[in-house]
Amino acid sequence: MQIAGEMIIGRSAFFGKEGTMKAVDPSRNTEIEPAFGLAGAADLQRACELAEQAFDVYRATGLEARAKFLETIADRIMDLGPALIERAMQESGLPQVRLEGERGRTCNQLRLFAKVVRDGRWQSATLDSALPERTPPRPDLRLRKIGLGPVAVFGASNFPLAFSVAGGDTASALAAGCPVVVKAHSAHLGTSELVGKAVARAAEECGMPEGVFSLLIGAGQTIGQELVAHPAIKAVGFTGSRAGGIALMRTAAARKEPIPVYAEMSSINPVFLLPGALDNPKLPQAFADSLTMGSGQFCTNPGMLVGLKSDKLDAFVAAVGGTIGAKPATTMLTPGIHKAYVTGVANLAGIAGVSQKAAGQGSDAPCTAQAFLYQVPASEFLSNPALEGEIFGPTSLLVVCDDEAQMLAVAEHVEGQLTSAVHATADDRALAAKLLPTLERKVGRILFNGFGTGVEVAHAMVHGGPFPSTSDTRTTSVGASAIDRFLRPVCYQDVPSYLLPESLADANPQNIPRVVNGELVWNS
Ligand code: NAP
Protein backbone atom coordinates (compact mmCIF):
# COMPACT_ATOMS: atom_id res chain seq x y z
CA MET A 1 0.00 0.00 0.00
CA GLN A 2 1.28 3.42 -1.01
CA ILE A 3 2.12 5.88 1.77
CA ALA A 4 0.61 9.22 0.82
CA GLY A 5 1.61 11.44 3.77
CA GLU A 6 -2.00 11.58 4.91
CA MET A 7 -3.73 11.92 8.23
CA ILE A 8 -7.20 10.47 8.92
CA ILE A 9 -10.18 12.33 10.27
CA GLY A 10 -13.24 10.16 10.58
CA ARG A 11 -13.82 8.63 7.16
CA SER A 12 -11.47 10.99 5.25
CA ALA A 13 -7.76 10.56 4.60
CA PHE A 14 -6.10 13.74 3.37
CA PHE A 15 -2.88 15.72 3.18
CA GLY A 16 -2.63 18.42 5.86
CA LYS A 17 -2.14 22.00 4.72
CA GLU A 18 -0.21 23.47 7.67
CA GLY A 19 3.30 22.62 6.44
CA THR A 20 5.07 19.30 6.01
CA MET A 21 7.46 16.99 7.83
CA LYS A 22 9.30 13.79 6.93
CA ALA A 23 10.29 10.74 8.92
CA VAL A 24 14.01 10.02 9.37
CA ASP A 25 15.93 6.80 8.75
CA PRO A 26 18.17 6.74 11.86
CA SER A 27 20.59 4.20 10.36
CA ARG A 28 21.51 6.73 7.66
CA ASN A 29 20.40 9.92 9.36
CA THR A 30 18.51 10.87 6.19
CA GLU A 31 14.91 11.85 5.57
CA ILE A 32 12.49 9.30 4.12
CA GLU A 33 9.90 10.10 1.44
CA PRO A 34 7.11 11.08 1.26
CA ALA A 35 6.43 14.34 3.06
CA PHE A 36 3.50 14.32 5.50
CA GLY A 37 1.02 17.19 5.61
CA LEU A 38 0.52 18.70 9.05
CA ALA A 39 -2.79 19.27 10.83
CA GLY A 40 -4.05 22.72 11.72
CA ALA A 41 -6.58 23.98 14.25
CA ALA A 42 -9.53 23.25 11.91
CA ASP A 43 -8.43 19.62 11.44
CA LEU A 44 -8.07 19.17 15.18
CA GLN A 45 -11.49 20.71 15.76
CA ARG A 46 -13.09 18.38 13.19
CA ALA A 47 -11.45 15.24 14.67
CA CYS A 48 -12.55 16.19 18.20
CA GLU A 49 -16.08 17.14 17.12
CA LEU A 50 -16.50 13.85 15.28
CA ALA A 51 -15.16 11.92 18.29
CA GLU A 52 -17.61 13.72 20.57
CA GLN A 53 -20.52 12.96 18.22
CA ALA A 54 -19.44 9.32 17.90
CA PHE A 55 -19.22 8.72 21.65
CA ASP A 56 -22.89 7.99 22.48
CA VAL A 57 -23.36 5.88 19.36
CA TYR A 58 -20.13 3.95 19.83
CA ARG A 59 -20.59 3.23 23.54
CA ALA A 60 -24.07 1.90 22.79
CA THR A 61 -22.68 -0.78 20.44
CA GLY A 62 -23.26 -4.31 21.69
CA LEU A 63 -20.45 -6.29 23.28
CA GLU A 64 -20.14 -8.60 20.28
CA ALA A 65 -20.03 -5.75 17.72
CA ARG A 66 -17.35 -3.92 19.68
CA ALA A 67 -15.27 -7.08 20.16
CA LYS A 68 -15.56 -7.83 16.45
CA PHE A 69 -14.35 -4.31 15.64
CA LEU A 70 -11.18 -4.88 17.71
CA GLU A 71 -10.56 -8.23 16.03
CA THR A 72 -11.10 -6.70 12.59
CA ILE A 73 -8.47 -4.04 13.33
CA ALA A 74 -6.02 -6.88 14.05
CA ASP A 75 -6.98 -8.60 10.77
CA ARG A 76 -6.55 -5.41 8.75
CA ILE A 77 -3.12 -4.80 10.32
CA MET A 78 -2.04 -8.31 9.31
CA ASP A 79 -3.36 -7.62 5.78
CA LEU A 80 -0.73 -4.87 5.47
CA GLY A 81 1.86 -7.65 5.15
CA PRO A 82 5.60 -7.00 4.72
CA ALA A 83 5.08 -3.34 3.68
CA LEU A 84 4.29 -2.44 7.30
CA ILE A 85 7.36 -4.20 8.67
CA GLU A 86 9.64 -2.69 6.00
CA ARG A 87 8.46 0.85 6.69
CA ALA A 88 8.72 0.38 10.47
CA MET A 89 12.27 -0.98 10.09
CA GLN A 90 13.26 2.02 7.99
CA GLU A 91 11.75 4.53 10.43
CA SER A 92 12.94 2.94 13.70
CA GLY A 93 16.17 1.09 12.94
CA LEU A 94 14.64 -1.91 14.73
CA PRO A 95 15.28 -5.36 13.21
CA GLN A 96 12.68 -7.34 11.26
CA VAL A 97 12.29 -10.09 13.86
CA ARG A 98 11.61 -7.60 16.62
CA LEU A 99 9.01 -5.75 14.53
CA GLU A 100 7.28 -8.94 13.42
CA GLY A 101 7.08 -9.93 17.09
CA GLU A 102 5.71 -6.50 17.93
CA ARG A 103 3.06 -6.77 15.23
CA GLY A 104 2.00 -10.12 16.73
CA ARG A 105 1.84 -8.53 20.15
CA THR A 106 -0.24 -5.61 18.81
CA CYS A 107 -2.79 -7.99 17.28
CA ASN A 108 -2.81 -10.15 20.43
CA GLN A 109 -3.55 -7.06 22.51
CA LEU A 110 -6.49 -6.18 20.28
CA ARG A 111 -7.78 -9.76 20.52
CA LEU A 112 -7.27 -9.82 24.29
CA PHE A 113 -9.41 -6.69 24.62
CA ALA A 114 -12.03 -8.25 22.35
CA LYS A 115 -12.25 -11.09 24.89
CA VAL A 116 -12.37 -8.60 27.75
CA VAL A 117 -15.27 -6.78 26.06
CA ARG A 118 -17.26 -9.99 25.45
CA ASP A 119 -16.69 -11.22 28.99
CA GLY A 120 -18.45 -8.09 30.23
CA ARG A 121 -16.85 -7.98 33.71
CA TRP A 122 -15.29 -4.62 32.82
CA GLN A 123 -18.73 -3.05 33.39
CA SER A 124 -18.61 -4.05 37.10
CA ALA A 125 -22.39 -4.60 36.97
CA THR A 126 -23.63 -4.47 40.57
CA LEU A 127 -27.24 -4.60 41.76
CA ASP A 128 -28.64 -3.85 45.22
CA SER A 129 -32.38 -4.64 45.37
CA ALA A 130 -34.80 -2.14 46.88
CA LEU A 131 -35.74 -2.80 50.53
CA PRO A 132 -39.02 -0.86 50.86
CA GLU A 133 -39.86 -2.43 54.26
CA ARG A 134 -36.58 -1.38 55.83
CA THR A 135 -36.39 1.76 58.00
CA PRO A 136 -35.29 3.88 56.28
CA PRO A 137 -36.24 2.15 53.01
CA ARG A 138 -33.40 1.31 50.63
CA PRO A 139 -33.86 2.37 46.99
CA ASP A 140 -33.09 0.09 44.05
CA LEU A 141 -29.41 0.75 43.22
CA ARG A 142 -27.57 -0.47 40.13
CA LEU A 143 -23.99 0.37 39.14
CA ARG A 144 -22.16 -0.08 35.89
CA LYS A 145 -19.04 1.42 34.38
CA ILE A 146 -19.10 3.44 31.16
CA GLY A 147 -16.39 4.99 29.00
CA LEU A 148 -15.00 8.41 29.94
CA GLY A 149 -15.39 9.89 26.46
CA PRO A 150 -12.98 10.59 23.59
CA VAL A 151 -9.37 9.72 24.46
CA ALA A 152 -6.21 11.36 23.08
CA VAL A 153 -3.41 8.84 22.49
CA PHE A 154 0.28 9.71 22.03
CA GLY A 155 2.20 6.85 20.42
CA ALA A 156 5.57 5.81 21.84
CA SER A 157 8.79 6.05 19.83
CA ASN A 158 10.14 2.76 21.18
CA PHE A 159 7.17 0.58 20.16
CA PRO A 160 6.06 1.86 16.73
CA LEU A 161 3.33 -0.79 16.64
CA ALA A 162 2.47 -2.13 20.11
CA PHE A 163 2.41 1.27 21.90
CA SER A 164 1.37 3.42 18.98
CA VAL A 165 -1.60 4.02 16.67
CA ALA A 166 -3.35 0.70 17.36
CA GLY A 167 -1.35 -0.15 20.50
CA GLY A 168 -2.41 -0.85 24.05
CA ASP A 169 -3.81 2.63 24.81
CA THR A 170 -5.97 2.67 21.68
CA ALA A 171 -7.12 -0.95 22.13
CA SER A 172 -8.10 -0.44 25.78
CA ALA A 173 -9.83 2.90 25.10
CA LEU A 174 -11.85 1.45 22.19
CA ALA A 175 -12.69 -1.56 24.37
CA ALA A 176 -14.01 0.82 27.04
CA GLY A 177 -16.32 2.44 24.48
CA CYS A 178 -14.22 5.57 23.98
CA PRO A 179 -13.48 7.08 20.54
CA VAL A 180 -9.76 7.71 20.01
CA VAL A 181 -7.82 10.59 18.48
CA VAL A 182 -4.16 9.62 18.00
CA LYS A 183 -1.33 12.14 17.72
CA ALA A 184 1.14 10.26 15.50
CA HIS A 185 4.72 10.09 16.79
CA SER A 186 6.94 12.09 14.46
CA ALA A 187 9.50 9.26 14.45
CA HIS A 188 7.27 6.77 12.59
CA LEU A 189 4.87 8.71 10.40
CA GLY A 190 4.60 6.15 7.57
CA THR A 191 4.01 3.29 10.01
CA SER A 192 1.33 5.42 11.66
CA GLU A 193 -0.43 6.15 8.36
CA LEU A 194 -0.46 2.46 7.37
CA VAL A 195 -1.86 1.34 10.72
CA GLY A 196 -4.24 4.31 10.93
CA LYS A 197 -5.75 3.39 7.58
CA ALA A 198 -6.12 -0.23 8.73
CA VAL A 199 -8.07 0.98 11.79
CA ALA A 200 -10.22 3.26 9.62
CA ARG A 201 -10.97 0.39 7.22
CA ALA A 202 -12.00 -1.84 10.13
CA ALA A 203 -14.26 0.91 11.51
CA GLU A 204 -16.04 1.31 8.20
CA GLU A 205 -16.34 -2.44 7.62
CA CYS A 206 -17.83 -2.94 11.09
CA GLY A 207 -20.27 -0.05 10.69
CA MET A 208 -18.75 2.00 13.51
CA PRO A 209 -19.68 5.69 13.67
CA GLU A 210 -17.51 8.20 11.86
CA GLY A 211 -15.21 9.77 14.44
CA VAL A 212 -14.59 6.59 16.43
CA PHE A 213 -10.97 6.94 15.27
CA SER A 214 -8.83 9.78 13.90
CA LEU A 215 -5.10 10.19 13.37
CA LEU A 216 -3.52 13.64 13.48
CA ILE A 217 -0.05 14.53 12.25
CA GLY A 218 1.69 17.50 13.80
CA ALA A 219 4.18 18.60 16.43
CA GLY A 220 3.58 17.67 20.07
CA GLN A 221 4.18 21.22 21.24
CA THR A 222 1.32 22.56 19.08
CA ILE A 223 -1.17 19.98 17.85
CA GLY A 224 -0.48 17.62 20.80
CA GLN A 225 -1.00 20.37 23.36
CA GLU A 226 -4.14 21.65 21.62
CA LEU A 227 -5.53 18.13 21.49
CA VAL A 228 -5.19 17.66 25.25
CA ALA A 229 -6.68 21.10 25.85
CA HIS A 230 -9.72 20.43 23.62
CA PRO A 231 -12.97 20.21 25.65
CA ALA A 232 -14.16 17.08 23.77
CA ILE A 233 -11.17 15.05 25.01
CA LYS A 234 -11.82 13.37 28.36
CA ALA A 235 -8.59 11.38 29.01
CA VAL A 236 -5.05 11.01 27.67
CA GLY A 237 -2.77 7.99 27.12
CA PHE A 238 0.93 8.79 26.66
CA THR A 239 4.28 6.96 26.58
CA GLY A 240 7.46 8.97 26.29
CA SER A 241 9.74 11.33 28.17
CA ARG A 242 9.18 12.69 31.66
CA ALA A 243 9.27 16.23 30.30
CA GLY A 244 6.61 15.46 27.66
CA GLY A 245 4.39 13.59 30.12
CA ILE A 246 4.58 16.35 32.73
CA ALA A 247 3.84 19.02 30.10
CA LEU A 248 0.65 17.15 29.16
CA MET A 249 -0.31 16.63 32.83
CA ARG A 250 -0.03 20.40 33.37
CA THR A 251 -2.16 21.18 30.32
CA ALA A 252 -4.79 18.63 31.37
CA ALA A 253 -4.89 19.97 34.94
CA ALA A 254 -5.18 23.61 33.79
CA ARG A 255 -8.29 22.99 31.65
CA LYS A 256 -11.66 24.34 32.71
CA GLU A 257 -12.57 20.67 33.10
CA PRO A 258 -9.37 18.88 34.21
CA ILE A 259 -8.96 15.36 32.81
CA PRO A 260 -6.83 12.34 33.73
CA VAL A 261 -3.50 11.80 31.96
CA TYR A 262 -2.14 8.27 31.98
CA ALA A 263 1.50 8.95 31.16
CA GLU A 264 4.16 6.28 31.25
CA MET A 265 7.47 8.08 31.60
CA SER A 266 10.91 7.31 33.07
CA SER A 267 12.06 4.25 34.99
CA ILE A 268 15.50 2.79 35.77
CA ASN A 269 14.18 -0.55 37.05
CA PRO A 270 16.62 -1.42 39.88
CA VAL A 271 17.96 -4.98 39.92
CA PHE A 272 19.00 -6.23 43.38
CA LEU A 273 21.78 -8.81 43.27
CA LEU A 274 21.67 -10.80 46.51
CA PRO A 275 24.79 -12.82 47.42
CA GLY A 276 23.46 -16.31 46.65
CA ALA A 277 22.42 -15.33 43.12
CA LEU A 278 25.95 -14.25 42.23
CA ASP A 279 26.92 -17.95 42.10
CA ASN A 280 24.74 -18.30 38.98
CA PRO A 281 27.24 -18.41 36.07
CA LYS A 282 24.52 -17.42 33.58
CA LEU A 283 23.69 -14.14 35.33
CA PRO A 284 26.28 -11.86 33.62
CA GLN A 285 25.17 -12.95 30.14
CA ALA A 286 21.46 -12.66 31.03
CA PHE A 287 22.04 -9.14 32.34
CA ALA A 288 24.05 -8.04 29.27
CA ASP A 289 21.39 -9.47 26.93
CA SER A 290 18.60 -7.64 28.75
CA LEU A 291 20.59 -4.38 28.87
CA THR A 292 21.34 -4.32 25.16
CA MET A 293 18.04 -5.75 23.84
CA GLY A 294 16.44 -3.26 21.42
CA SER A 295 19.44 -0.91 21.94
CA GLY A 296 18.36 -0.58 25.57
CA GLN A 297 15.27 1.36 24.45
CA PHE A 298 12.80 -0.38 26.71
CA CYS A 299 11.01 1.36 29.54
CA THR A 300 11.85 -1.75 31.62
CA ASN A 301 15.55 -1.71 30.76
CA PRO A 302 17.80 -2.64 33.76
CA GLY A 303 19.35 0.82 34.18
CA MET A 304 20.51 0.17 37.74
CA LEU A 305 22.09 -2.76 39.60
CA VAL A 306 22.47 -2.90 43.39
CA GLY A 307 24.92 -5.31 45.03
CA LEU A 308 26.85 -5.89 48.26
CA LYS A 309 30.60 -5.26 48.22
CA SER A 310 32.31 -8.66 47.90
CA ASP A 311 34.72 -10.70 45.80
CA LYS A 312 31.72 -12.40 44.22
CA LEU A 313 30.34 -9.03 43.08
CA ASP A 314 33.75 -8.13 41.61
CA ALA A 315 33.78 -11.45 39.73
CA PHE A 316 30.27 -10.71 38.40
CA VAL A 317 31.43 -7.29 37.17
CA ALA A 318 34.47 -8.82 35.46
CA ALA A 319 32.24 -11.38 33.71
CA VAL A 320 29.82 -8.66 32.62
CA GLY A 321 32.84 -6.83 31.15
CA GLY A 322 33.42 -9.80 28.84
CA THR A 323 29.81 -10.19 27.77
CA ILE A 324 29.16 -6.49 27.19
CA GLY A 325 32.51 -6.19 25.39
CA ALA A 326 31.19 -8.61 22.77
CA LYS A 327 28.03 -6.59 22.14
CA PRO A 328 28.04 -4.60 18.87
CA ALA A 329 26.83 -1.01 18.71
CA THR A 330 23.20 -0.85 17.50
CA THR A 331 21.06 1.79 15.84
CA MET A 332 18.88 3.92 18.11
CA LEU A 333 15.32 4.99 17.27
CA THR A 334 15.88 8.63 16.41
CA PRO A 335 18.74 11.13 16.16
CA GLY A 336 17.19 12.94 19.16
CA ILE A 337 17.16 9.83 21.33
CA HIS A 338 20.74 9.07 20.26
CA LYS A 339 21.88 12.58 21.17
CA ALA A 340 20.16 12.35 24.57
CA TYR A 341 21.84 8.98 25.17
CA VAL A 342 25.35 10.22 24.33
CA THR A 343 24.83 13.28 26.54
CA GLY A 344 23.41 11.18 29.40
CA VAL A 345 26.35 8.76 29.32
CA ALA A 346 28.88 11.62 29.21
CA ASN A 347 27.21 13.32 32.17
CA LEU A 348 27.19 10.10 34.20
CA ALA A 349 30.84 9.36 33.40
CA GLY A 350 31.78 12.84 34.59
CA ILE A 351 30.26 12.52 38.07
CA ALA A 352 32.76 12.12 40.94
CA GLY A 353 32.94 8.55 42.24
CA VAL A 354 31.58 6.97 39.03
CA SER A 355 33.90 4.52 37.26
CA GLN A 356 33.45 2.65 33.97
CA LYS A 357 33.46 -1.14 34.34
CA ALA A 358 32.44 -2.39 30.90
CA ALA A 359 32.09 -1.03 27.38
CA GLY A 360 30.50 -2.56 24.29
CA GLN A 361 31.85 -2.14 20.80
CA GLY A 362 31.77 1.35 19.30
CA SER A 363 30.77 2.33 15.77
CA ASP A 364 31.02 5.36 13.50
CA ALA A 365 27.65 4.56 11.87
CA PRO A 366 24.95 7.20 12.52
CA CYS A 367 22.80 7.02 15.65
CA THR A 368 24.49 3.93 17.12
CA ALA A 369 24.63 3.24 20.84
CA GLN A 370 27.62 1.73 22.63
CA ALA A 371 26.71 -0.26 25.74
CA PHE A 372 28.25 0.59 29.13
CA LEU A 373 28.31 -0.51 32.75
CA TYR A 374 29.35 2.06 35.33
CA GLN A 375 29.84 1.64 39.08
CA VAL A 376 29.41 3.97 42.06
CA PRO A 377 29.55 3.52 45.85
CA ALA A 378 26.12 3.59 47.49
CA SER A 379 27.18 6.54 49.68
CA GLU A 380 27.59 8.66 46.51
CA PHE A 381 24.34 7.39 45.00
CA LEU A 382 22.40 8.28 48.15
CA SER A 383 23.72 11.84 48.14
CA ASN A 384 23.54 12.77 44.43
CA PRO A 385 20.13 12.86 42.68
CA ALA A 386 21.85 13.18 39.26
CA LEU A 387 22.80 9.49 39.55
CA GLU A 388 19.16 8.45 39.47
CA GLY A 389 18.18 9.95 36.09
CA GLU A 390 17.01 7.65 33.28
CA ILE A 391 19.59 7.13 30.53
CA PHE A 392 17.40 5.79 27.72
CA GLY A 393 19.69 3.23 26.09
CA PRO A 394 22.06 0.36 26.92
CA THR A 395 23.81 1.83 29.98
CA SER A 396 23.48 0.64 33.56
CA LEU A 397 24.89 1.84 36.87
CA LEU A 398 26.00 -0.65 39.55
CA VAL A 399 25.49 0.77 43.06
CA VAL A 400 27.84 -0.99 45.50
CA CYS A 401 26.60 -1.17 49.10
CA ASP A 402 28.78 -1.69 52.20
CA ASP A 403 26.16 -3.80 53.96
CA GLU A 404 22.53 -4.92 53.94
CA ALA A 405 21.35 -1.80 55.76
CA GLN A 406 22.78 0.34 52.96
CA MET A 407 21.10 -1.86 50.33
CA LEU A 408 17.77 -1.33 52.08
CA ALA A 409 18.50 2.42 52.21
CA VAL A 410 19.10 2.44 48.45
CA ALA A 411 15.79 0.61 47.86
CA GLU A 412 14.05 3.20 50.04
CA HIS A 413 15.78 6.08 48.25
CA VAL A 414 14.85 5.32 44.63
CA GLU A 415 11.94 7.03 42.90
CA GLY A 416 8.83 5.20 41.66
CA GLN A 417 9.61 2.49 39.09
CA LEU A 418 7.82 0.27 36.59
CA THR A 419 9.76 -2.81 37.68
CA SER A 420 12.34 -4.06 40.13
CA ALA A 421 14.06 -7.44 39.93
CA VAL A 422 15.51 -9.38 42.85
CA HIS A 423 18.10 -12.04 42.08
CA ALA A 424 18.23 -14.37 45.06
CA THR A 425 18.35 -17.98 46.22
CA ALA A 426 16.64 -19.52 49.22
CA ASP A 427 19.78 -18.64 51.25
CA ASP A 428 18.99 -14.94 50.63
CA ARG A 429 15.42 -15.17 51.91
CA ALA A 430 15.95 -13.00 55.02
CA LEU A 431 17.29 -10.04 53.00
CA ALA A 432 14.76 -10.61 50.20
CA ALA A 433 11.93 -10.54 52.75
CA LYS A 434 13.20 -7.19 54.07
CA LEU A 435 13.38 -5.73 50.54
CA LEU A 436 9.91 -6.79 49.45
CA PRO A 437 7.76 -4.37 51.52
CA THR A 438 9.86 -1.43 50.28
CA LEU A 439 9.66 -2.59 46.66
CA GLU A 440 5.88 -2.99 46.94
CA ARG A 441 5.69 0.72 47.76
CA LYS A 442 8.09 1.71 44.97
CA VAL A 443 7.26 -0.35 41.90
CA GLY A 444 4.45 -1.76 39.75
CA ARG A 445 5.97 -5.19 39.05
CA ILE A 446 8.40 -7.11 41.27
CA LEU A 447 10.14 -10.04 39.62
CA PHE A 448 12.52 -12.69 40.87
CA ASN A 449 15.55 -14.08 39.03
CA GLY A 450 14.68 -12.40 35.76
CA PHE A 451 14.73 -9.01 34.06
CA GLY A 452 11.82 -6.67 33.41
CA THR A 453 12.34 -6.49 29.65
CA GLY A 454 9.60 -8.54 28.00
CA VAL A 455 6.21 -7.42 29.29
CA GLU A 456 3.64 -10.20 28.95
CA VAL A 457 0.23 -9.02 27.74
CA ALA A 458 -1.93 -10.88 30.25
CA HIS A 459 -4.68 -10.44 32.80
CA ALA A 460 -2.35 -10.17 35.83
CA MET A 461 0.24 -7.86 34.22
CA VAL A 462 0.98 -4.46 35.77
CA HIS A 463 2.94 -2.03 33.62
CA GLY A 464 2.65 1.01 35.82
CA GLY A 465 4.04 2.32 39.08
CA PRO A 466 4.45 5.37 41.31
CA PHE A 467 5.59 8.71 39.87
CA PRO A 468 7.76 9.35 37.87
CA SER A 469 7.41 5.94 36.24
CA THR A 470 3.81 6.93 35.53
CA SER A 471 1.53 9.87 36.28
CA ASP A 472 -1.10 7.71 37.99
CA THR A 473 0.12 4.98 40.29
CA ARG A 474 -3.29 3.26 40.38
CA THR A 475 -3.22 1.96 36.84
CA THR A 476 -1.47 -0.21 34.25
CA SER A 477 -0.97 0.49 30.56
CA VAL A 478 -0.46 -3.20 29.63
CA GLY A 479 -2.77 -6.12 30.27
CA ALA A 480 -6.51 -6.51 30.63
CA SER A 481 -6.83 -4.03 33.53
CA ALA A 482 -5.62 -1.20 31.27
CA ILE A 483 -9.29 -0.77 30.30
CA ASP A 484 -10.05 0.56 33.81
CA ARG A 485 -8.19 3.80 33.02
CA PHE A 486 -10.92 4.84 30.60
CA LEU A 487 -13.99 3.88 32.65
CA ARG A 488 -16.03 5.52 35.40
CA PRO A 489 -18.88 4.20 37.53
CA VAL A 490 -22.48 5.41 37.18
CA CYS A 491 -25.17 4.50 39.72
CA TYR A 492 -28.83 4.17 38.58
CA GLN A 493 -31.22 4.73 41.50
CA ASP A 494 -34.86 3.64 41.07
CA VAL A 495 -34.52 3.91 37.29
CA PRO A 496 -37.55 2.24 35.60
CA SER A 497 -36.73 -1.17 34.16
CA TYR A 498 -37.58 -0.06 30.61
CA LEU A 499 -34.82 2.58 30.79
CA LEU A 500 -32.09 0.45 32.35
CA PRO A 501 -29.01 -0.50 30.28
CA GLU A 502 -28.82 -4.15 29.24
CA SER A 503 -26.00 -4.95 31.66
CA LEU A 504 -28.23 -4.00 34.61
CA ALA A 505 -31.55 -5.43 33.44
CA ASP A 506 -33.12 -8.03 35.78
CA ALA A 507 -32.96 -10.77 33.14
CA ASN A 508 -29.22 -10.21 32.56
CA PRO A 509 -29.56 -10.44 28.76
CA GLN A 510 -25.79 -10.00 28.30
CA ASN A 511 -25.30 -13.06 30.50
CA ILE A 512 -22.39 -11.42 32.31
CA PRO A 513 -21.05 -11.97 35.84
CA ARG A 514 -22.66 -9.48 38.24
CA VAL A 515 -22.65 -8.75 41.98
CA VAL A 516 -26.24 -9.02 43.19
CA ASN A 517 -26.93 -8.00 46.78
CA GLY A 518 -23.27 -8.51 47.62
CA GLU A 519 -22.97 -12.00 46.07
CA LEU A 520 -21.09 -12.76 42.85
CA VAL A 521 -23.50 -14.32 40.34
CA TRP A 522 -21.64 -15.78 37.35
CA ASN A 523 -24.56 -15.74 34.92
CA SER A 524 -28.30 -15.94 34.82
P1 NAP B 1 8.77 12.46 23.83
O1 NAP B 1 9.69 13.53 23.39
O2 NAP B 1 8.18 12.61 25.17
O3 NAP B 1 7.61 12.35 22.72
C1 NAP B 1 6.51 11.46 22.87
C2 NAP B 1 5.30 12.05 22.16
O4 NAP B 1 4.83 13.18 22.90
C3 NAP B 1 5.58 12.57 20.75
O5 NAP B 1 4.42 12.40 19.98
C4 NAP B 1 5.83 14.03 20.97
O6 NAP B 1 5.55 14.83 19.85
C5 NAP B 1 4.89 14.35 22.10
N1 NAP B 1 5.38 15.43 22.97
C6 NAP B 1 6.64 15.59 23.44
N2 NAP B 1 6.69 16.68 24.22
C7 NAP B 1 5.45 17.21 24.23
C8 NAP B 1 4.88 18.36 24.84
N3 NAP B 1 5.59 19.20 25.59
N4 NAP B 1 3.57 18.60 24.64
C9 NAP B 1 2.82 17.77 23.86
N5 NAP B 1 3.32 16.69 23.25
C10 NAP B 1 4.62 16.41 23.44
O7 NAP B 1 9.47 11.06 23.78
P2 NAP B 1 10.28 10.36 22.60
O8 NAP B 1 10.56 11.28 21.47
O9 NAP B 1 9.52 9.13 22.28
O10 NAP B 1 11.61 9.95 23.30
C11 NAP B 1 12.41 10.91 23.98
C12 NAP B 1 12.81 10.38 25.33
O11 NAP B 1 11.67 9.85 26.01
C13 NAP B 1 13.77 9.21 25.32
O12 NAP B 1 15.09 9.62 25.17
C14 NAP B 1 13.49 8.59 26.66
O13 NAP B 1 14.20 9.25 27.67
C15 NAP B 1 12.02 8.81 26.88
N6 NAP B 1 11.20 7.61 26.58
C16 NAP B 1 10.80 6.87 27.62
C17 NAP B 1 10.02 5.78 27.40
C18 NAP B 1 9.53 4.96 28.54
O14 NAP B 1 8.77 4.07 28.30
N7 NAP B 1 9.94 5.22 29.75
C19 NAP B 1 9.62 5.43 26.12
C20 NAP B 1 10.03 6.23 25.06
C21 NAP B 1 10.82 7.33 25.32
P3 NAP B 1 6.55 14.89 18.61
O15 NAP B 1 6.28 13.64 17.83
O16 NAP B 1 6.15 16.10 17.88
O17 NAP B 1 7.93 14.94 19.16
UniProtKB/TrEMBL annotation:
The keyword Electron transport does not apply. Signal peptide: none annotated. InterPro entries: Ald_DH/histidinol_DH (IPR016161), Ald_DH_C (IPR016163), Ald_DH_N (IPR016162), Aldehyde_DH_dom (IPR015590), Aldehyde_DH_Superfamily (IPR050740), ALDH_KGSADH (IPR044151). It holds the Pfam family Aldedh. It catalyses: 2,5-dioxopentanoate + NAD(+) + H2O = 2-oxoglutarate + NADH + 2 H(+); 2,5-dioxopentanoate + NADP(+) + H2O = 2-oxoglutarate + NADPH + 2 H(+). It comes from the Bacteria. GO terms for molecular function: 2,5-dioxovalerate dehydrogenase (NADP+) activity. It is an enzyme of class 1 (oxidoreductase). Residues 19-465 form the Aldehyde dehydrogenase domain. Its EC number is 1.2.1.26. Keywords: Oxidoreductase. Belongs to the aldehyde dehydrogenase family. This is 2,5-dioxovalerate dehydrogenase. It comes from Duganella fentianensis.
